[in-house]
Amino acid sequence: MGKELVGKCKRLPLAIIILGGLLLLKSKNVLVWDNVLKTLDWRDRCEVLALSYHDMPSYLKPCFLYLGLFPEDAVIRSNKLKMLWIAEGFTELYKHDKMTAEEIAEFYLEELYQRSMIQVVSKKSYGGFRTCGIKSFRIHDLLKDLAIAEGIEFNFLTIHRGTLLLPTESNSSPKAPRRLAIQSPLQHNQTQFDSPKLRSLLCFYVGQEYQFRNLLPIVDRLKLLRVIDLNNVTLEQLPKQIGTLIFLRFLGLNNTGLKRLPESVGDLFNLLTLDVRTDGELRKLKVPPSVWKLKKLRHLYVDQYIAPQLIELPNIQILNGIPAGDWIANCLGTGLIPRKLPLKDLNRLFLLALVGRLERLPDVTGFPTQLMKLTLCASKLDQDPMPVLGQLQSLESLKLLKDSYTGDQMFCPPSSFPKLKFFMLREIPLSEWELEDRAMISLKRLFIYGCNNLTMLPEGLKHTDDFQELELVDMPSQFLNRVDENGGEDFHKIHRSILIIKVVAEEDS
User: What does the entry give for GO biological process (predicted)?
Assistant: First the structure.
């Protein structure tokens, strides 16, 4: 029967893959498989794709249709998509008392993967509650066409590709689409949106000529918006009326050129995700203190122009780009025993990225107990941070970036970093690194960038259980020669289960 099913796919590889994903989730008996044979219209090779969608549980269908909003061949980052799903309320369709919204979103993504509805581009080798560890993925053109067709039929979405596809005669009717994806430049007169039932506005077009000069018409007309994602769109200003969008849950404004957010952002009491990062030479965006009023906020991505006080965000899970400074130093005090970080009591915080001078760390009791990912940059630590950080029992990813540590020696005590899977060292003056017995025993990936004083890998690296990947960038020739498979003195430390070694040597003068 399996051979007959494959034969019905008429040699369309995607149909075979989708059929396999569909049958994988069904009982392996003759009656079930025979029903699949009888149900499909095998004259249409794409019928199996539609069957796979209609066979989905009700909670998963909107997640699949949502993929139709993304441009053709787009590489979709799973973290952002999951935040959008949460903002849209999709995770509320699956009732589970012991799972967070983020865990449910990850469960959805894994099920789409198991059904072969998405194609993985890159995966993470760490991630805590993440099960399939997908970092980014694509959706096949035929499946994307299916998501668009089904989405338009049920007024789930519409897409702007040169022509605005919003209804023109009855914008307030029940058939008005709920989500608009802009994938090409808007004409000036097309910025006047008149669909009050619109829930989500997403922009995917990137171009210097593309800008919203004034968001006020949107804010005035679209009071039910849950999602605004205008990343890489030039904005002159964000009107203070943004605070009237009381249903807004996701606000993506990174790389918009905005200079500041209005104080009224603090009135968005349902906001779950705020992303105002900037890349390259763009001006950093100033965030007002009112952001700390957002008690429901779960994911915050910012830059250096922010003045945090004692954090009072009970639901926060991601603090990315928060600047270190006096607000931390004052809490740590000047005594011999460092006190706790002001983030200690954020029980749900699993990702923290601190930028700026820190100088010293608190003891291990000063960190959030559930912290899984930690990034330090420009911290200017003069004492070895590893004895403290190695005691963080939940830590799975650690990045020590440029100027995070100014010392030249690093010592990881026995059995430290028990769950660490990913470790990055970047542009620090380290010359000696030791791993004691069973330290970093779970390490899978090690990235070392521009650490020109480091002479060798630690001997303890050979004792890791599942080491997979070593990436070296801008490292001196002496170091590279030691890991060479042809007689390198350090090769025995990495040869057991290494999959990939990426080496980019610095140019010799």
Answer: defense response to bacterium; innate immune response-activating signaling pathway; plant-type hypersensitive response
User: How distant, in Å, are the alpha carbons of 192, 390, 439 from that of 435?
Assistant: 61, 11, 6
Burial class (CB in 10 A: 0-12, 13-18, 19+), 46: middle
Sequence-ordered list of residues with C-beta below 8 angstroms from that of 54, at least 6 positions apart, any chain: none
d(CA 416, CA 435): 9
- Give CA–CA dist 440/445, Å, rounded: 11
The residues, ordered by sequence, that sit 6+ positions from 137 with a Cβ below 8 Å of its Cβ are: 75, 76, 78, 113, 118, 119, 120, 121
Pair type for strands 119-123 and 134-138: antiparallel
- CA-based radius of gyration for the chain: 25
**Residue whose entry in the numeric block shows the structure tokens 């008149």:** 194
Q: Quick one: tokens of 307?
A: 């003045």
Distances (CA, A) of 17 to 5, 55, 115, 164: 12, 15, 9, 35
Which tens digit of pLDDT belongs to each residue from 249-289? 999 998 888 888 999 999 999 999 999 988 765 567 788 88
Positions in the chain short of pLDDT 70: 40-46, 125-132, 162-175, 185-194, 205-214, 280-283, 304-311, 325-340, 496-509
Residue type, 415: S
What is the value of pTM for the model shown? 0.84
In which element (H, E) is residue 354 found? strand 351-355
Structure tokens at 341: 């970080």
Containing H/E element for 113? helix 101-114
